[in-house]
Specification:
Bound molecules: adenosine-5'-diphosphate
Oligomer: single chain
Number of helices: 8
Distance between the termini: 31 Å
Radius of gyration: 18 Å
Number of strands: 10
């Protein structure tokens, strides 16, 4: 089963100074339980591609289907609801600084419609899942980078998504912390059957956890396939 199916995706940014074809005809399928990496330099179009997968950007052309639902055909409330099935984590974590760790996770539960009565137990469950139960009452400023990303992951999993999008999730972290976060992602992939689509400029990340990958350049995939095949090529 293909959890993510993208066909003929295009996105152009227009401004007074001209236009940039950020994504210029991308086809992609990601099977259930896969960890798919999109590797490329800055400006290749990775972030735009990822933001089209959860429709933070609306593509100019092409289709995006996640978990059997064509998102490109939806608007308004139906799109917002479908989006709950897609979690996202960010390079700079994007936490609410005025809320505790538990508060950040609780907020995500609230936004995605978990009834108040279930929230407390669910916060505890999510923090347990990412190994952060001890820090429930800390504020983001009191956490290490790795701990902040664990909060980001707990929050992304609030609505029990089947897909997790990762936007350079380890790029702001040192190598040791990067490894611990990648191990956590692999663990979640295996335990929850979570399908992961990640973008990165680091080959080491792709080698470490991806089952398949694509190389992106100037808005297109120049290579893609199973990781074993890609690494074997000259
Ligand atoms: P990457 O994530 O690989 O660094 P991006 O998707 O961020 O690539 O950017 C692809 C291209 O689109 C770049 O040329 C970038 O400058 C341009 N771009 C990205 N976002 C915008 C935007 N909001 N407005 C105009 N141009 C943009
Ligand atoms: P904030 O002030 O940062 O918004 P709150 O203390 O108001 O955080 O808590 C927000 C939510 O998180 C509430 O639903 C609360 O029940 C839950 N919560 C707070 N502390 C914990 C904890 N240690 N374990 C589990 N849930 C917690």
């Amino acid at each position: 089963f293909n959890v993510i199916e993208i066909g003929g995706l295009r996105k152009t940014y227009r401004s007074r100074n001209g236009s940039v074809r950020a994504v210029d005809g991308v086809d992609l399928t990601v099977g259930e339980g896969e960890v798919f990496g999109v590797l490329g330099r800055s400006g290749a179009g990775k972030s735009t591609l990822l933001r089209c997968v959860n429709m933070l950007e609306r593509p100019d052309a092409g289709t995006v289907t996640v978990d059997g639902v064509e998102l490109t055909g939806l608007r308004g409330k139906r799109l917002r609801t479908a989006r709950h099935g897609i979690g996202m984590i960010h390079q700079h974590f994007a936490l609410l600084s005025s809320r505790t760790v538990a508060g950040n996770v609780a907020f995500a539960l609230e936004v995605t419609g978990t009834p108040r009565a279930e929230r407390k137990a669910r916060v505890a469950e999510l923090l347990e899942l990412v190994g952060l139960s001890e820090r429930a009452d800390a504020y983001p400023a009191q956490l290490s980078g790795g701990q902040k990303q664990r909060v980001g992951i707990a929050r992304a999993l609030a609505a029990r998504p089947r897909v997790l999008l990762s936007d350079e999730a380890t790029s702001a972290l040192d190598p040791e912390t990067t490894d611990s976060i990648l191990r956590l992602l692999l663990d979640l992939n295996r335990r929850l059957g979570l399908t992961i689509l990640l973008i990165t400029h680091e080959m080491t990340v792709v080698k470490r956890i991806c089952t398949s990958a694509a190389v992106m350049r100037d808005g297109r995939f120049t290579e893609s396939g199973a990781i074993t095949d890609l690494l074997r090529r000259p």
